[in-house]
Design goal:
single chain, 6-stranded mixed beta sheet, Rossmann fold, 199 residues, globular, alpha/beta, 39% helix
Length: 199
Amino acid sequence: MPLSLSFSTLELPALRQELLDLFCQVAYQEGDFVLSSGQPSSYYINGKQVTLHPQGGVAVGRLMLAMVPPESIAVAGLTLGADPLVTATSVVAAYEGRSLAALIVRKEAKGHGTMAYVEGPSLPEKSSVTVLEDVVTTGQSALKAVDRLRAAGYQVNGVLALVDRLQGGAECYRQAEIPFQAVFTISDLQHRWSELHST
């Protein structure tokens, strides 16, 4: 899908709006679905349609980077959904003169070699790491990443998501005393999707 605007140069508020439109065009669907959490849903968000989109990847990297705390020296996330987010944010950071390592957290320990759960550069113990997630429902996926990063000796300073489905994720992080922010809520997507489909 050709896009007339350059996602690499737009101001962040305009970029956020363009990313919202992209979500509504390629990632948001209505129907009968079962989520990875096992919950039924009347809609589905395939975040990879945005995070693996060339312009979407640039937008995601820029918007997420703007939310990463200044003390972070790495971004991390649970494979597979967070892989493009972590990579895009790290690459955009490099273009903006900031060093931000990318870490991928495995769902199962590596079956050979170091048997590691966390892939990426070796960082000093107690390094500040921010966890990234594409779509948050219950919050359990990112919590798994948080637990494994802490077990590896890192300090997790927050969770950032592209979309919060408003189904308990924020409360889960609040109870765990982990700061949480999302670029969009499901209300943002549904409102814009309705606008785009009513014309």
